[in-house]
């Protein structure tokens, strides 16, 4: 299986990673008659649900609101599944208010155009900060928090991410087709004479072999294949605050507020917990590791890799991000933002970012029998009902037409300083996690 030109059905598939891309791919393989005789194995370094995986959290935004029309179309299909037959008990359709005050308004305008072109969603355009405050039930009037223009898509919502992942895992297990293994993958098994991948080597030096290996390890994928200039790990801050039942009842019916100019957002609370976070350029964590494709331990590369609370149980979000989340809360709901009400939990969620925000779903251009499915870029989870089917189509050489030129392996590597992004990221640029930690982390 050298490329996507004329792939054969593999007798065995090994999926590295049980997050949104990996688990959804396993589910799709199980239900595809072409793979009825294929042995399917999923390996992950942590017991499910992976405690520091990006797909395991209290909530994730579910929206078709994209500046790129192909993602709007695919997300619309996924959202209908969330409403009808996919983990419906974990989906809450309370709307999404997407706003901006700066250059990110271009993204908002394009997104509005695309959802209107689909024509199925209920849209309310908001031309000022006061209109945004009204639609979102905000107490505060500070447009730094609310944004100055935007719109509400009342057909968008949010999902309990961990609940949905557990639901999907149970659906996969019911099919009794997948062997799940908890083990740390250290290296691909690469025959450099033939440029063929035959599986992986685990931390205990044992091997898992398969006809086709699919890397779907999210932000950790770059530790197993050289993705410099293609994909990098960025850490995004999340802060949580307990609230009362009365406060939850007041806030829960209102839409999520996502201010693209700052990257800050607030998802309606559940289980008496309020979440504030930043969808921004993120923290980098430069790490020097042995080159994942080399057998020479002295051949090293430096890349950004996740550093989570599993690596350091005392880890908390750096002070600058806690300050930003606190200021955001003060601007939109000042009654909740008092010194006597600290964030009781913080964490860093790690994205696998690509230079244009497109997914990387492709055969490797050099190594046969190796397929890569990563690059969620902070927006992969909402596609959970359909992304596995799309990945399997790509495995079989049938990349959806609208994603040709977007999901393939890039023809060249581009320095990170030249990455354009998708236009949706706000907030600080160029932060290094260790540097921000050194500046102080605290209780805010």
TrEMBL record:
Transmembrane segments: none annotated. InterPro entries: FAD-dep_OxRdtase, FAD/NAD-bd_sf, MTOX. Residues 13-392 form the FAD dependent oxidoreductase domain. GO terms for molecular function: flavin adenine dinucleotide binding; L-pipecolate oxidase activity; proline dehydrogenase activity; sarcosine oxidase activity. Signal peptide: none annotated. Its cofactor is FAD. Pfam families: DAO (PF01266). It comes from the Eukaryota. The keyword Magnesium does not apply. Keywords: FAD, Flavoprotein, Oxidoreductase. Belongs to the MSOX/MTOX family. This is FAD dependent oxidoreductase.
